[in-house]
Design brief:
Blueprint: E1 28-34, E2 37-43, E3 54-58, E4 70-71, E5 75-79, E6 82-86, E7 94-98, E8 104-116, E9 122-129, E10 137-143, E11 152-157, E12 163-169, E13 181-188, E14 191-196, E15 199-204, E16 214-220, E17 222-233, E18 248-252, H1 264-272, E19 277-284, E20 290-292, H2 313-317, H3 337-347, E21 351-355, H4 361-373, E22 380-384, H5 387-396, E23 402-406, H6 413-420, E24 424-427, H7 429-434, H8 439-444, E25 448-451, H9 457-466, E26 470-473, H10 476-488, E27 495-500, E28 505-507, E29 516-520, E30 524-529, E31 532-533, E32 548-558, E33 561-571, H11 575-583, H12 589-600, H13 604-614, H14 621-635
Parallel strand pairs: 18-19, 18-26, 19-21, 21-22, 22-23, 23-24, 24-25, 25-26, 28-33
Antiparallel strand pairs: 1-2, 3-17, 4-7, 5-6, 6-17, 7-16, 8-13, 8-17, 9-10, 9-16, 10-11, 11-12, 13-14, 14-15, 19-20, 27-29, 30-31, 30-32, 32-33
Length: 637
């Protein structure tokens, strides 16, 4: 059966990428903008799945379409242990649906283009698709010409049958035809990561989730085969950075190095620059309207003066918040939280919202109500230095992820994270670099680590090596570029292979192989032969080894981990090999003559008995046992 119950014992081995974290999750309202029309939908966590559950596992060995798989349109068949989908025309987005609704999951499959009408044709993993295949739906697409700028995509087909494509990328090589490609997408609510043959290619935070969309496979203008389709429930905290993935980029006060901070133009520049999240600050006006402003006064970033809490919304909206930064920004206004969220909802993006300074519970409630009214509960992450603000947020909206800002690290970050129900612990980056050992226990507790405010490549590199998940930075576009270079770098993981003797080699006594090891990214290499210490470059004396199988193990260590390799070889017994033993035995010349004569005559049993009698006398004891053993082996053949 393909679709497994949540109580099924079939579980994937530990994902290693995310730590389990339990949070209350309420049904959330989300707004899907499709073809210009706003359609209210609900994003909810499934009631019948748990992290680690394999919800779908199919290798198509049954020879027929699996139970519960609905071939909506196109031609779908199972043959030779693979599922084949055929779309006759580039106008046909043919699909087969299956699985169940999930909020946090990994969807992976092996895909192969068998034939295509053009390199622009594609196949997809359906991430949120109605069971009947009706629009709207979201897909992660791969063209056969994957090296094109849009070789990979996240895309939505709207109810108006138009395309919305928020994210595109190129793969490192072409899928072409006849080539198996292992693809995967990890989804956490509106966020997703596109993984091409084991390497992250792009990410999005623009998915618009439905209440009941399931998984699907798509084919367009091609015949595509699929194998080893797996869907696995993931823990809900998608903010922990998987191994090998780049940082989450958080634009501090928007693109604050390029535009006036905390304005909509700074938000737009950060969004166009590829930032994953916008970080802004919220404070109330005198009449209780939440505004986006960092300082407690308007003096520094506007043409006005006074504390924000002493000014009405009307007074704040009349201020110029752009001219201080540059003449091209004259007339920019201080946005309300509602205005900022509406911009993110309609134009794309998510918000890391800092509740700035002391807030009453009623003031926090107002902030949360604005987020609800703007249908952005699934795309806002709340952080604050103020513990009270986080506690109020959790009481009022436990579904919102929370981050605690710190200038210095707590004695026990894990304990306070549990106390405050944190999704992330967000310290000053320099304080974190002084104690990077705190990151691992936070990850083990299911808590992400977001460092602020780091603006140089040298600091980014140190934080990446320490395992930091996200960077809050004034130079978001530069960090996006740094991430791109990071994703293209060669792996720093150590590798090792035993190149000699070849694995499975059969060697006779006359051969003299050398242990050879090929290693990369390694500082140390350890070699053992049959469990005893040896060394790479050592010449093996097969005259002293017993006949039969022997095992070489090697372990290498490097800055980014360890790697191991094992190889075996067999010392065989032959007349030629036994002759080599005799001639190189350093025995008495008369004894060598006697042994050689018996060997040539094939009198192996007599040879063995002779050597036993002369061991330690005419034949050195250390080789006598080997010669006698080989002779007895030949006598039995």
């Amino acid at each position: 059966m393909t679709v497994l119950s949540a109580s099924s014992p079939l579980r994937r081995a530990a994902t290693g990428l995310h730590a389990t974290r339990t949070r209350a999750a309420a049904a959330l309202a989300a707004l899907a903008v499709t073809g210009g029309a706003a359609v209210a939908v609900t994003a909810s966590s499934p009631a019948a799945a748990e992290p680690g559950n394999v919800v779908v596992s199919e290798n198509f060995s049954s020879g027929s379409l699996p139970a519960g798989w609905n071939a909506v349109d196109g031609a779908w068949k199972v043959e030779n242990g693979r599922l084949y989908g055929t779309s006759a025309s580039s106008a046909d987005n043919n699909k087969i649906t299956f699985g169940r609704h999930l909020n946090d999951f990994r969807f992976e499959a092996t895909m192969r283009f068998e034939t295509v009408s053009a390199a622009t044709r594609w196949a997809s993993l359906g991430l949120d698709v109605p069971a009947d295949g009706a629009t709207p739906w979201w897909i992660a697409t791969m063209r056969s010409g994957t090296t094109a700028a849009n070789g990979l995509e996240f895309a939505q087909r709207t109810t108006a049958n138009t395309w919305v494509v928020p994210n595109t990328a190129s793969a490192p090589y072409a899928a072409g035809t006849g080539r198996d490609i292992r693809v995967a997408v990890e989804v956490h609510g509106n966020q997703a990561r596109w993984i091409f043959d084991g390497r992250e290619a792009m990410r999005t935070n623009s998915l618009q989730r439905s209440a009941d969309g399931i998984q699907a496979l798509f084919v367009n203008g091609a015949t595509v085969s699929y194998d080893d389709v797996t869907v696995t429930e993931l823990p809900p905290n998608g903010y922990i950075r998987p191994e090998g993935s780049p940082f989450t980029v958080i634009a501090h006060r928007g693109a604050s190095a390029a535009a006036p901070e905390n304005t909509l133009v700074a938000q737009e520049i950060a969004r166009k620059g590829g930032a994953d999240w916008i970080e802004n600050d919220v404070q109330p006006s005198k009449d209780g309207v939440p505004f986006i402003l960092h300082d407690d006064t308007v003096d520094r970033t506007t043409d006005g003066t006074g504390k924000i809490r002493d000014l009405t919304a009307e007074q704040i909206k009349a201020l110029d918040a752009g001219s201080w930064f540059g003449p091209q920004y004259v007339g920019e206004r201080v946005p309300t939280l509602a205005e900022q969220l509406a911009d993110l909802r309609t134009r794309g993006g998510s918000l890391l919202l800092e509740i700035k300074g002391k807030h009453t519970k009623d003031e926090v409630a107002t902030i949360i109500q604005v987020i609800r009214d703007e249908q952005m509960m699934s795309r806002v992450f709340v952080q604050s230095f103020e513990v009270d603000a986080l506690q109020y947020t959790y009481e009022l909206a436990p579904e919102l992820p929370l981050g605690l800002l710190r200038s210095s690290l707590d004695a026990d970050p894990v304990a306070i994270s549990k106390q405050l129900h944190l999704t992330a612990y967000n310290p000053d980056g320099n304080a974190l670099l002084a104690k990077p050992e705190f990151i691992a226990p936070l990850h083990a507790a299911g808590v992400a680590v977001m460092a602020w405010t780091m603006d140089s490549a040298g600091l980014w590199q140190r934080l990446e090596r320490a395992g930091t998940d996200a960077i809050i930075t004034n130079r978001a576009s530069e960090l996006v570029g740094w991430n791109s270079a990071f994703m293209q770098r060669a792996s720093g993981d150590p590798t090792v292979a035993i190149t000699s003797p070849a694995d499975g080699a059969r060697l006779d006594r006359a051969q003299s192989p050398v242990i050879a090891v090929a290693a990369t990214n390694s500082d140390t290499v350890t070699v053992t032969l049959d469990g005893k210490k040896s060394a790479a470059g050592r010449k093996l004396d097969l005259a002293k080894l017993t006949a039969g199988k022997h095992t070489i193990n090697t372990v290498v260590t490097g800055p980014e981990g360890t790697a191991t390799a094992t190889g075996t070889f067999t010392v065989t017994v032959s007349q030629a090999g036994l002759g080599y033993l005799i001639l190189t035995s350093a025995a008495d010349p008369a004894a060598i003559g006697t042994m050689t004569a018996k060997l040539v005559d094939g009198k192996y049993a007599e040879l063995a008995s002779y050597v036993d009698r002369q061991a330690g006398k005419l034949v050195p004891a250390e080789v006598a046992g080997v010669i006698a053993a080989d002779a007895r082996t030949l006598a039995l053949k």
